[in-house]
């Protein structure tokens, strides 16, 4: 099925929003989006980057509810105060490795979002583009498929000491190669040797010090808004979140990686790419989408350290269904686009995404209206992140979110997520045997306009009513009518808007001044498919054309 182009925001994003901006001058009391872009054309039917973490933030000005202020969904109590597990810092090792990968032409390390830093890298390291480290990285990219998380997973085994790079005495190289077959002991040994030589010959530490002021800006920005309720991990997984290492990287751009407790070196943590420029983004002007998108990915990466071992325990039971689902043509293609290259990775990511969303559900920030709470632009952002997950290939995602109602309704039976895994397995197996039904359910989540009516009974106005197939988000709509290009020059959009809004949760109305209409003339146009989201943040699949004769 063809869909209009969706510009994802993250998480990745990830991470999450359509290419629609709320006017910065819109007063806080106004909850309508009046500045959505024009309707999508057929030429725009190519999907943009699909992870919430790999997308451009949409600027929204809104009154925001913070996670600490949200009422917990399952308990009528105040949630635990949000606290940062540890401060985010820039680590010299990861900047070194990321810059080397960038010089070697690794696409994922060549998408910097900070012009000042990009220029500094290009200027400082240009004479070293043919260093043996760079050539080695090029070679193992081809021979071993090294890239993405393989770089930080190897780099964390290193230490900077006595002006050079060496292996951490506690590192287990053999375990690294077992965990990640892309690395061989020989390739890793050369990586360490050449990294040390590159570090010394480029005087990398001088470069790192020269950019320390920029690093501090990024650290202060992220630590100013990135809050995590550390107590949630104990209540959801049954294990506490123990002192994770939290890093940000200026060279990673929109890519983010979990540094899991896999036995290669003590500890665990996350490496977040900084996908906005701290020279222009501040705590005062950071948008809802930027802040929520970054927080979303933090939770996602922290969850991996808990979810991965649980999924691993059940992988044998999940494997059969996972193979069936993964090798559906469209699923396989979608997963390949986001570097999930086999059924096991797909299954790990699906379940980790699910757990990530449960964090926000418990904060009252995922579909709050469905639990009797009040929605906000913040909850819209996290709901949109769930939509992005479904859109990028996990079309059964909303069904598993609904499945978790059973988990929350029977916590006496399922104290922790792992206790609920037999139900997850049962769902997955059933789904794999009736994929078409799940596809139909997924397609029905996309809002469609199912009814159109004209009401000219009022003395001064003509009201157009558009009825949708699902409950709609009252904070997100575009009231403008666009020319359709159909019906010749006599068919024009009505003008003179005097009122817009929703009647109930499915009917959108636009009222026009009656004096702008001519009897006997035909009016019409397009309702912008970009301009509306459902209550679950799904976008319309296409623009809606309409016309009517004014009598």
What key phrases describe this protein's structure?
alpha+beta; about 550 residues; 4-stranded mixed beta sheet; 13 strands; 4-stranded antiparallel beta sheet; disordered N terminus
Number of E strands: 13
Largest sheet: 4 strands, mixed
Give the uncertain stretches in residue-range form. 1-81
How many helical elements? 17
Question: Overall mean pLDDT score?
Answer: 86
Radius of gyration, in Å, reads 25 Å
Strand order of the largest sheet: 1-4-6-5
The helix content is: 25-40%
User: What characteristic shape results from the CA principal axes?
Assistant: globular
Summary, kept brief:
The chain has 551 residues and is an alpha+beta fold.
Structural commentary:
By secondary structure, the protein is of the alpha+beta class. Among the domains are: 89-212, no CATH class; 304-443, no CATH class; 449-549. It contains 17 helices and 13 strands. Strands 1-4-6-5 form a four-stranded mixed sheet, sandwiched between helices. A four-stranded antiparallel sheet has the order 7-8-11-10, with no helix packed on it. A hairpin with a 5-residue loop joins strand 7 (449-455) and strand 8 (461-468).
Q: How is this fold's topology laid out?
A:
Elements: E1 89-90, H1 92-103, H2 115-125, H3 132-144, H4 150-155, E2 158-161, E3 164-167, H5 173-179, H6 185-201, H7 204-210, H8 212-225, H9 231-237, E4 245-249, E5 257-259, E6 269-273, H10 288-313, H11 315-326, H12 329-337, H13 343-362, H14 377-391, H15 397-409, H16 421-433, H17 435-443, E7 449-455, E8 461-468, E9 481-482, E10 497-503, E11 507-513, E12 522-527, E13 544-549
Parallel strand pairs: 1-4, 4-6
Antiparallel strand pairs: 2-3, 5-6, 7-8, 8-11, 9-12, 10-11, 12-13
Helix pairs in contact: 3-6, 10-13, 10-14, 11-13, 11-16, 13-14, 13-15
